[in-house]
Amino acid sequence: MITALLIQLVHCSANLPEALRQAPNVNPILEVSIDANYPTKCHEAVTEACCLFWSRVLQRFTSNKTQDASELKTMMENLVMDLLTTLNLPEYPASAPILEVLCVLLLQNAGLKSKDISARSMAIDLLGTIAARLKHDAVLCRKENFWIVQELISGDNVDHSYPKDACSVCLDSRIGKPLFVCQGCQRLFHAECMGVREHEVPTRGWHCQFCLCRKQLLVLQSYCNSQCKENGKKNHSQSEKSSEATDPITKVEIVQQMLLNYLQDAGMADDVHLFTCWFYLCLWYKDDPNSQLKFFYYLARVKSKAIVRDSGVVSSLLTRNSVKKITLALGQNNSFSRGFDKILHMLLASLRENSPVIRAKALRAVSIIVEADPEVLCDKLVQTAVEGRFCDSAISVREAALELVGRHIASHPDVGLQYFEKVAERIKDTGVSVRKRAIKIIREMCTSNANFSEFTSACIEIISRVSDEESSIQDLVCKTFYEFWFEEPTGSHTHLFGDGSSVPLEVSKKTEQIVEMLRRMPNHQFLVTIIKRNLALDFFSQSAKAVGINPVSLASVRRRCELMCKCLLERILQIQEMNNEEGEVHTLPYVLLLHAFCVVDPTLCAPASDPSQFVVTLQPYLKSQADNRVAAQLLESIIFVIDSVLPLLRKLPPSVVEELEQELKQMIVRHSFLTVVHACIRCLCSVSKVAGKGAAVVQYLIQMFFKRLDALGFDNKQQVGRSLFCLGLLIRYGNPLLSTSGSSNKNIDVARSLNLFKKYLHAEDFVIKARSLQALGYVLIARPECMLEKDVGKILEATLSSSTDVRLKMQALQNMYEYLLDAESQLGTDKASDNVATCSVDGGHRVPVAAGAGDTNICGGIVQLYWDSILGRCLDVNEQVRQSALKIVEVVLRQGLVHPITCVPYLIALETDPQEVNSKLAHHLLMNMNEKYPAFFESRLGDGLQMSFIFIQSMSASSPENSNPKFQSKLPSNMKGKSDSGSFAYARLGVSRIYKLIRGNRVSRNKFMSSVVRKFDTPSWNSSVIPFLMYCTEILALLPFTLPDEPLYLIYAINRVIQVRAGTLEANMKAFLHFLQGDGQKILHGNGIIQQEQFTQAISNHTVPVDVNGTVQEESAAQPLSNNTESMYSNLQSMTFGDSCGISEDILQRIQADCVAAIALQLLMKLKRHLKIVYSLNDARCQAFSPNEPLKQGEVLSKQNIPFNINETHTNLPATYQEVLQRYQEFKIALKEDTVDYSIYTANIKRKRPPPRRGGKSGRMDRQI
After folding, report:
1. What is the pTM for the complete model shown?
2. What was the pLDDT predicted at 541?
3. CATH numbers and ranges of domains, the chain
4. Whole-Å CA distances, 55 to 103, 462, 850
5. Which residues are 54's β-sheet partners?
């Protein structure tokens, strides 16, 4: 009702001339005394009325309270929706100007440029809704097939050739439908194609609407010109202008006249239609550059029904639906529709707003516009803006931006191709939901377009997340590749890959896709994971797993994998038959994929029909004489496949066995790539086992290398290293054969090799040392009991020590890692959850008996023997050493070989590792441990923080930058001697991640903060204690608090320490100063407090009492240093400890220990002051806090961005009486400021006059800010 009244009001504000309204005949129309600018002024009056209405409404919105503003916003939204409903309806032309004025105001200070965020939010919502409707109407008009609309869109200069025996609109020539011939243009029409009623079409002398309206306008034009000439004497100037208005009739004018005729024909008795027609003419008059030359022509069009006889016949034939289509098409030419680009650009600009609320609103507004026309996404400005939101700081905005693109991938493949690169970047996003959405979008790009040009790149991006830390993303990746490659397609696929092939063409295409992806990947590790999980189908939802995986699906995946392996074998043969010079390069990815399938399940390459097929087919490729990296990689993979399949075969043809042995022996002796030699030795041992020949070949090779080493001595280090390498591998893989051979030399060979390796470990050449250590590791894998021997233990301890060369440490760790993996594979321990040792949850440091200790598994005992050395290497200065040691920790925890609590401090320290790989793995292990053993985790957090400080110190000491004095001088004073700024940044991030792990549990986070604060309570006196306490202070200041309870508890814990320690420390320091003054007999006892009665009394008088919240009482805090102390300072300012009455070293250490404790308390007080300022916590709130009170729901924590600075703290220990006095004064001042620091240090932030207080001048001021 309100909307109808508003539209009617705006219609009337166009000021229809009275002469037009009351004219009973035609002639007075041309005699009206109005200016040619009158329609323009009428349009301005309409705009003014709309502007007045909306200005008042928007002004009330910004001035009202929240509830009233919400109600007014709802009313405005309803009003806009009503106006959009009437938009482009023939009876309501005012809807467009009303909405246009609203958009203009919303684009200015009343909307997007307003300081009120609620006004900006509402403006974005309304503009988005309006722009979406404009785009929707534009799309409808573009797709409209109605012939009049098509004539209008085609323009005036397009000349169509129409068929002579068919409808000019639908081109249908069927006899069943009657065709009507237009007498004007001679075109044929169906009645329904013209949008008219068939029974109303006359049978003779019929004209189409276009011809009739053109004829009508020509008559009006001629009539106006003739009337103007007759009345030229009365209105000479207007007659001249009108006489020039002989322009040709345009299609736009013809369609406009159709609409006017319809309105005149459908007009009521009260002449409401005259206001509507006049309103339309004012709008068109404004947009016509030659309108003033055709003024009377425009006036005559209002009364065309009265001027031109039978003009109503034209409109009476048009249905209302046809007129609505005409109105929609005409509406695309008005200024309101042309303003869409301006609205869109302003909404895109809002995407760069600082407020995340505004950005989210703008993104939703752009989304509904894109819903109306997805092709908007192809616009360069839109693409730039949306891609910019892919990198937004808010996860929700990034996800919404991806969702905006993802909804239209299937229907508009070109959009997907245009956005692919930026969407692919979001696969590595920090937000889990963003990564998931990016993967789903890329998957849809590939599935919706069978010929997607970036398919291979898409696969590479998706497979990179198969090792994601989020398990749901791992499942999503595996499911994606299941749909790509391993899912059985619907329908039958009888087309085969080639002549004589049993592989369907569809499987062959999928195989080629995998090979193409592998061709562009550095290795096949990710693909191995994909194949393994698809064969198990363990990535389905929990509900599907609960029901059980369908055995048919499992069998289907296995069959497809077998077919892929067959296809790979056929392709390898085809490439070989081509005799290409680069055949090895083309063959390699096929062999690598076959290698990946074999890693997961060798039975895939041992078909039941012919199990030895792959071995027999691939064996000739071992004869290759090429000696380059590609050929070596090819040989290594082929040998691996053969070695994997051999144990599955019952019997091999003797000729194949002989050829294999000869070729493998030759490569062991001659091949230059040791990776190939490694594979050959392993495969040779498998061949000997399958052929049942025993250890003869292995023993022969062992003796051969023994002899070669005896002959070489220490000369020719390359040959010596190769021989040591081969000897170690032969014993490792040949150990089962040697054990069952019954030869008496088996133990002699092992002992002899151990002595030989020890001998070469003392070689001067480092290459020989490293190779000997590697060979020793191979032997120890075969005979792990040797690691328990004393001499071998000394070797391993020495190689794992911090002073050893990095390469030896790396090799020793690699030996241990391979041993653990070998033991794990032998025991079949694939799941970590099945192998975790059962441990008693306590906070002790004792390592319990590991799993397997006391039985045949000696792995646990060996690990515990070297566990401290391995943990020490976790904090090595070399990043590769740390990474290798951390991998060992991962395997050990997975197998449950040690107590998990021993790893916690080291893993916490590694959270601060600058290398992202190490910090991520450490965090992953800590997450698992926190889930299983939260008590272990919490009890060692404080130790872990101290370990992280030690780690950062060692990293800083080894950094070449820190040896540069110029670099040191640039560091802040609180960072020197502790870490550089980069290391501290990593430390802050690492500790923040740890805190986030436990933040959800109030008890856990309080324990963490208490354990750190306790470090300040009774600090142990050593050279690094003060830098460590400064490190802890900065870490506590930068914790990512989200609830008010967190900083309040930290302040509470700080106040407890100050309450207990402050008074005693102040008294001790003061008593020591009195002692140095030389008054009376001074006897220090125990903790340094003077036993003499008067001094005991003095101490008690000067002890600073502290209340529960750590507030120093006013009387003692206000008391200045005594005159006695001042004279003492003047008389003894140059006295050193060596000169002061023969003070012992023990007493000196005690006073320095007190100074360290004073510095610790000063750091805590500075931290407390900083927390209260940053989180706007006043004294009353801190004093009222209790850790036992329940959390208040909905309470928000506000935070100011203020840097924490502890540079002013003196950290050096006193060496003279003057320095002791200075420390004492600093401590006294800190205690005094602790009572008034809030009023002093917040003065620069928010100035407010404090309320008057009764009582003393000093003391803590309870103020609100």
Report:
1. 0.75
2. 79
3. 1-143 (no CATH), 150-228+248-335 (no CATH), 373-450 (1.25.10.10), 453-490+498-604 (no CATH), 797-827+858-898 (no CATH), 1000-1077+1142-1241 (no CATH)
4. 12, 53, 79
5. none
